[in-house]
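Practice problem: predict the structure.
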Amino acid sequence: MTTALQATRLQDRLSSELTRLKDAGLFISPRVLEAPQRARTRILGREVVNLASNNYLGFADHPFVKERAAAYLHAWGAGAGAVRTIAGTLQIHEDFEAQLAAFKHTGSALVLQSGFTTNQGVLGSLLQDGDLVLSDELNHASIIDGLRLSKATKKVFKHKDLNDLRRLLQEHPTSGLKLVITDGVFSMDGDIAPLGEMVKVAREFGAVTYVDDAHGSGVLGEQGRGTVHHFGLQHAEDVIQVGTLSKAWGVVGGYAAGHQDLRELLINKARPFLFSTGHPPAVVGALSAAIELVQQDSSFIERLWDNTRYFKRELQTLGFDIFGSETPITPVIFGEAPAAFEASRLLLERGIFAVGLGFPTVPKGLARIRNIVTAEHTRDDLDTALSAYAEVGRQLGVIGG
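Answer:
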């Protein structure tokens, strides 16, 4: 095959795939932020109120976090230089993991490159042929992809449906490991897993519970320790918690927290850990500062929840459907995808950055704008957003005049 023919076939494939995405309304062109990730940022040359970020506590551009990052950069260099298992484990990596384990009240913790790769690494290391996995139907894509790497039997239970979970456990007995997997906070709807009752059901059948706390860590529980702590399960040896360090903590990375043996297994078997360079020192420093900051100052969590309650209440007063959200993730339902995308465009015209989401990211008929309120938003920011929502909602006929 000639080089020219190979190039033509490649170009045909790229073009056809892009056309398919555009025809299906799934083509993505990300907005570019022209200023730091904050409650107000800059897009297309104008200042906007930012409701699209996962920066729950406002740490992404916090001075204390940036100062620690700079200090670690100067003291330890720009990069780790190797994978963790060869020569890339610096003392600061292990110090931070001990700090994180103490914060989470677990026996140990291991940090991986991202929350996505953490699910791949933990599930790929833990599960074997003959094991049984029960996964909530709305679990994150990283869990779904992680399970694809496993030879375990996989079953999906209806969202937060404990009766369906119990039925599947009864119908699929096994002598292998049984693992019940759930998000702590679900990223599209903002609802919380019924973790206390779920663990009880799992224990009836000798199953372990696995919680992805990406959107719960830094948000729920005492000092933001997460969903597991929120339900008082932080000392339970039959609960594994994983999560991300890129949302409330404002930086990047993922973690697995639990028994020391889990950490040791992952060091030896988790492929993302074994084959990826360790985090740069500046990242480690920023994360260390973020964990310190949330424990030193309770106002971050307090402001986050004060803002969340206010924003939800006022949206409902206007007549919007927020789909029963229980957390700072606040969906506003517009029905079909074109309406949600048009609402996002109209909001941006009014200085509000909030992204529309449609099928297949969310079910048909439940297209929405997903808003995330942060600790950094002021009441003026939220009132500006609410005023814009009122105008757009009436213009599109989603709420009454």
